[in-house]
Amino acid sequence: MKPKIYITRKLPDIVVTRLTEVCEVKMWDKEEEPVPREILEKEIQDVDGLYCLLTESIDKPLLNRGTRLKVVSNMAVGYNNIDVAAATEKGILVTNTPGVLTETTADLTFALLMATARRLVEASDYLRAGDWKTWSPMQLTGQDIYGATLGIFGLGRIGEALAKRARGFDMKILYHNRSRKLEAEEQLDIQYADKERLLRESDFICVLMPFTHETKNYIGAAELSLMKQTAVLVNTARGGIVDEEALYHALKNREIWGAGIDVFEEEPVSTEHPLLSLPNVVALPHIGSASKNTRLKMSLLAAENLLQGLQGETPKNIVN
Ligand code: NAP
Q1: Number of the ligand 1 atom closest to the C-alpha atom of 290
Q2: Which residue's CA lies nearest to atom 3 of ligand 1?
Q3: pLDDT at res. 80
Q4: pLDDT at res. 165
Q5: Residues that are catalytic
Q6: Which of 219, 226, 259, 264 gives the lowest tally of CB atoms within 10 Å of its CB?
Q7: Cβ < 6 Å from ligand 1: which residues?
Q8: CA geometry: angle at 77 spanning 33 and 319, to 5°?
Q9: Pairing mode, if any, of strands 258-261 and 93-95?
Q10: Alpha carbon distance 315, 320 (integer Å)
């Protein structure tokens, strides 16, 4: 008998076809609407594998319903939406999709850094609104990127890929992790800094660490107060790592200069969110990995991880 799986969002045909070769597949087939919790609660009871996205909270009560569940495959590198400890306790494998999205997410992070520093969205809106009357010396002036200091919190796969891009802009690069990466320091000509030094000395700060109990509100009022008044903060990791209320006040009071945000504590973010009222914020709807090729690679990799787990092999990207 084929194992049964549930897929929580409409996937490209090629991925569904691959999964159907091995499994009996049921899929929530709406592209722009997440599966309602009550449907997921029902579907999980009857399946061996779950293919999910970061929009689903795979918590303990849900896992408890999956009495025959063996594998949860997340189509994302971050897996803070899954209670991994609860899954492990129940002997359920959890997998993610690292690596295939590294370069694409680093591209977006650097693009967001540049867009925020040079006020690209504000400038485009200004032109479209018909406000462009003349060229003037200090009109829409931003921050220089070339030769500036970049601080990276979380120098992992994406952090290193970002550092490579920054080298091309002759940036001085600082990073902070829980552990030093001596090889990367040498290869990329980057320096390890403690948290405080990174906050004080950087012109641009990029957050690229996972969202965990340790990193919740990692950047709050105290950290923002150490940053330069001209500093730009970019978060393409996860909402919740940066305290949004503290960030709002720091930006509003011009304690820091600007912020580029791809991820929010609550997603989709409300259009009433205070951060969206600020001109010095460039906000994006969680599109870090959103290139056509990369999303296809992620969806195929998540499928392979799920199949490996269901076929009794150790999945390529297991997190527990
Ligand atoms: P990774 O290779 O695991 O890198 C994460 C880095 O964070 C590691 O170097 C780790 O170093 C550091 N870190 C972890 N906990 C820390 C802490 N408490 N304090 C300081 N540093 C800490 O992960 P990745 O593939 O680069 O992805 C990073 C994150 O980006 C993911 O977890 C995901 O949430 C996010 N992401 C977002 C998007 C998007 O669409 N916006 C796309 C892809 C990924 P140590 O272990 O030495 O501390």
Answers
A1: 40
A2: 156
A3: 97
A4: 98
A5: 238, 267, 286
A6: 226
A7: 77-78, 98, 101, 105, 154-159, 176-179, 208-211, 214-215, 236-238, 262-263, 286, 288-289
A8: 115
A9: unpaired
A10: 11
CA–centroid distance, residue 39 to ligand 1 (Å): 31
Q: What is the pLDDT of residues 26-37, one digit of tens each?
A: 999 999 999 999
C-alpha 100 – ligand 1 centre gap (Å): 14
Q: Determine the number of helices (DSSP H) and then strands (DSSP E) in the chain.
A: 12, 12
- 8 Å CB contact between 205 and 162: no
| Pair of tokens at residue 95 | 């997998």
Q: Which residue has a Cα nearest atom 12 of ligand 1?
A: 154
User: What is the rounded distance in angstroms from the CA atom of residue 85 to the CA atom of residue 105?
Assistant: 27
CA of 109 to the centre of ligand 1 (A): 13
Query: Cα–Cα distance between 178 and 296 in angstroms, integer?
Result: 32
Residue with CA closest to ligand 1 atom 37: 237
Domains and CATH numbers, the chain: 4-98+292-310 (3.40.50.720), 102-283 (3.40.50.720)
The confidence score (pLDDT) of residue 183 equals 97
The two tokens of residue 127 are 């032109």
Distance separating alpha carbons of residues 220 and 224, to the nearest angstrom: 6
Distance, CA of 72 to CA of 52 (rounded, Å): 7
Per-residue pLDDT at 222:
98
Nearest to 100 by CA among 301, 315, 319, 305: 301
